[in-house]
């Protein structure tokens, strides 16, 4: 693989927080944003506003919750985390169209983009997808 092929593949498989925010405002029905982070709920108490929370380890049992007619955007913790890549692989193997949000929730928060509080005990599960 040469450099051009690498960067084309990278751009095809990822979307930046700024590009996602802009594109989802222009076409909100196009995307299904998923927080796939694993770990205790207390460390996952913030999520990107509008994201559904489906931890990567639950993904094989929750495929019916994920629409096939939308582009799935997955994210995890940060650039060092590969949980979103693992989730993307599972979804791609099942025929979904998937991209990874670069930088995870850390990049999103660094840019002061909207987040929401989300706990597994929320009574309004539709608000955050817990």
TrEMBL record:
CDD domains: RHOD (cd00158)
InterPro entries: GlpE_sulfurtransferase, Rhodanese-like_dom, Rhodanese-like_dom_sf
SUPFAM superfamilies (alphabetical): Rhodanese/Cell cycle control phosphatase
Residues in coiled coil: none
Secretion signal span: none
PROSITE patterns documented for this protein: RHODANESE_3
Gene3D superfamilies: Rhodanese-like domain
Domain Rhodanese: from-to ranges: 27-117
SMART domains noted in UniProt: RHOD
Protein name: Rhodanese domain-containing protein
Originating organism: Bacillus sonorensis
